[in-house]
Amino acid sequence: MRIPILFCWFVILLGVFAAKRRKAERHGEDSEREFWERENAANAVRKQDISNLDYVDLSGVTLPFALFPDEYLTQCEREVMDLKEKRILNLTGISNTDLKMQYGAANLTALTQYDQNFTRLVRTLNAWGHRLHELSHTQEAITVLAFAISIGSDIKATYQLLAELYQQEGDFQKIKALIPQARTLNSLMKEPILSMLEQFSEST
Fold it and tell me: CA 88 to CA 119: how far, in whole Å?
């Protein structure tokens, strides 16, 4: 009795699928084992000195505080002033395991808080810059947005509005200067930001 060709192909495909599934399972088990081995090693790292890390320093920064009577601007300004007294650290793209490996598990809580302060800061700066733009305070908006990018913000809307304002000002070199800054980002937003900036550059 002849076995139908379709049945033979079905058996072959089942075999290939089963082999790939076993390979994927082995890979997953290996990855999980490696993760926990590294996590255990990270938890054993002694506490390191983190006093000299590259903290964001707001003390000497000139930003447009208290220039315009607007409730939303005032809220943004208060947020930034509140953060001025806190430690702020850009840890975007660095996993908790990597932080523990480098600085010790005992520092993780503090470092997480410093990173949250950074996220809060760049979001506030983005909102502040956009509100200044809405109120037609172009130069002040540029100042705020440019500062956000200088400290490592990876918010695409910050880059986009700043590029638009530079374009309106006819300052095309500054648009191009944003590209090297974006290349330093350690973030999933790096490529979308670069793509957007390249489009701006091509249109100038």
Answer: 9
Position 15 scores a pLDDT of 73
The amino acid occupying position 38 is R
Rg (CA), the chain: 25
SS3 content of the chain, % helix, strand, coil (to 5): 70, 0, 30
CB 161 within 8 A of CB 143: no
Cβ(102)–Cβ(48) below 8 Å: yes
List the one residue out of 67, 182, 192, 65 whose CA is nearest residue 125.
65
Q: Which residues of 100-116 are buried (b: 16+ CB within 10 A; e: fewer)?
A: bbebbbebbeebeebbe
Interatomic CA distance for residues 24 and 19, integer angstroms? 9
> Is the Cβ–Cβ distance between 204 and 167 less than 8 Å?
yes
Tens-digit pLDDT profile for residues 48-83:
999 999 999 998 899 999 999 999 999 999 999 999
Inter-CA distances, 100 with 1, 32, 109, Å: 66, 18, 10
State the DSSP H helix or E strand holding residue 106, giving kind and residue range, or none if neither: none
Model's pTM, two decimal places? 0.82
